[in-house]
Write a structure and sequence with these properties.
single chain; Beta Polymerase, domain 2; two-stranded antiparallel sheet; Mab-21-like_nuc_Trfase
Length: 491
């Protein structure tokens, strides 16, 4: 009997040959999914050629020259300002902003490259400068900002952008108003752009569109053969770390031992964005406790730049693929869910899962990580639970209605049931819209040797620092000439 059982038993795979791994839900071959992920990443991460690098540089020069004009309009912006340049537009999920108000722009149709620039209206970096973050009236991750304790010069510059709170017969007119700041900034940018248009210089980019989109002022520049989109966001910039997020530092995190705590907590921002109304408030037609004219949103963009350096490459590729897949899924209808929430889930996954798994070079791992991110997003939606990574007490999905959650969950289930087809669609889209110019300049064209050296140097910086953010300083003596910093290196 034993010999008969052995005869009919399933024979093991030949030594050295691994059985193919399949996704139980979709039946997809995981190695094939991984191959498609790598193909998509390859199409989306093209290196700049010399010409494109030069065009990107001249567009940056135009933006900083324009901000120099903004500063000259009424001397409100700090002269020696420090900006944070993020790769990708606000619709790409680089900031926690509601997608509802960011406007519709399509890569390939409207622009070729996109960036987000955080522009400090106030730099509260002086340790001796008392600052009052008033969180008594706000939901977690939001605050009012009182300028009552600021110096007279600051109050004088910004008094027209402050709001008051009625207290009996008195009005406290010291709360820095995000809506008034955005109104001023958007108008000042338009004035500055129009001034530069009246005095065009040969070789400078041409501003094709200047538009206000909620808290964002969007510029699309034509520089040579490139159309470059800039989302400009006025912010309040702080050094150090807010007390409300101190608890996060007490926990264990995936970046421990890879970067220092000082790098992670070097600073934070206030974004001109209020808390979303709850689903209950929307049903009865009120805006709940949020006050758009006084409420700012805490943002930890500097910290996120540092944390991205610690993301294992397979997970970074999976995130890029997942973001490409869901971007169209989330575009219609716009329901308050953006790729920023997927980025948050990626950070939580890094804390939850072993780094050996996230960094594995096994051929099917990236496919599994992609599907895992999609599963995490579906779970977060159905439970209406997506804690902010730095302030877990803030649930970024709390405001979603049941109808919205079910609609998005159904769409996500369709993606999850056939990831191969959606990856192929994303690859075709990247081929059509994500193309960046390659190859040398055509024969007969020429540029000054200095421009060639500049283009090659900028190309080297971009290649050596993929996905990193760049701080930019304006020289007080010449606001038209920027100085770049990538992490701690100056150029």
């Amino acid at each position: 009997m034993a010999s008969l059982i052995n005869a009919v038993a399933q024979r093991p795979s030949p030594p050295g040959k691994m059985a193919a791994e399949f996704d139980f839900r979709s039946g997809a071959n995981m190695e094939h999914v991984c191959e498609l992920v790598l193909d998509l990443v390859q199409f989306e991460q093209r290196e700049f050629d010399d010409q494109t690098a030069l065009e990107v540089h001249t567009a940056k020069d135009f933006i900083f020259s324009m901000l120099g004009v903004v500063q000259k309009i009424d001397q409100r912006l700090p002269i020696a300002n420090e900006y944070l340049l993020l790769s990708g537009g606000t619709r790409d999920g680089v900031l926690d902003l509601s997608p509802d108000s960011l406007g519709d722009y399509a890569k390939g149709a409207d622009y070729d490259l996109d960036f987000t620039l955080l522009v400090p209206a106030l730099k509260l970096h002086d340790r001796n400068q008392p600052v009052t973050l008033d969180m008594r009236h706000s939901t977690p991750c939001h605050s009012w900002l009182s300028l009552r304790l600021c110096d007279r010069a600051t109050l004088s510059r910004w008094q027209s952008c402050c709001k008051g709170v009625q207290d009996g017969d008195q009005s406290d007119g010291y709360y820095f108003s995000p809506t008034l700041v955005v109104d001023w900034f958007s108008g000042a940018v338009l004035k500055a752009v129009n001034e530069l248009r009246r005095n065009p210089q040969r070789g400078t980019p041409v501003p094709e569109r200047v538009e206000r989109n909620g808290p964002v002022t969007t510029l699309i520049l034509t520089a040579g053969t490139s159309r470059i989109l800039y989302d400009l966001v006025p912010v309040v910039s702080f050094r150090g770390w807010p007390a409300v997020a101190q608890g996060w530092l007490m926990e264990n995190h995936f970046w421990d031992g890879k970067i220092t705590e000082e790098e992670v907590i070097s600073g934070f921002y206030l974004l001109p964005c209020c808390s979303p109304p709850s689903s209950t408030d929307l049903l009865v037609g009120i805006n709940g406790g949020s006050q758009p004219d006084k409420e700012w949103r805490l943002a930890f963009s500097r910290s996120e730049v540092q944390l991205k350096k610690c993301i294992p490459l397979p997970l970074a590729h999976a995130f890029q693929a997942a973001k490409a897949i869901i971007s169209k899924l989330l575009a219609r209808p716009k329901a308050g869910v953006s790729p920023y929430h997927l980025r948050t889930l990626m950070f939580w996954a890094c804390d939850r899962l072993p780094s050996t798994y996230l960094s594995s070079k096994e051929s099917s791992v990236q496919g599994g990580l992609l599907l895992g991110l999609l599963d995490d997003l579906a779970h977060a939606l159905l439970n209406k639970s997506c804690p902010n990574y730095f302030l877990p007490q803030c649930n970024m999905f709390e405001h979603l209605s049941d109808t919205t959650v079910l609609l998005l969950a159904r769409k996500l289930a369709c993606v999850r049931s056939d990831p191969v087809e959606h990856l192929r669609t994303a690859i075709e889209q990247a081929k059509v819209t994500g193309h960046l110019k390659n190859g040398p300049m055509s024969a007969g064209s020429s540029r000054p040797a200095e421009d060639d050296r500049l283009a090659k140097r900028l190309q080297q910086l971009v290649t050596e620092n993929p996905g990193k953010s760049i701080s930019v300083f304006l020289n007080p003596e010449d606001v038209s000439r920027p100085h770049f910093r990538i992490d701690d290196k100056f150029y």
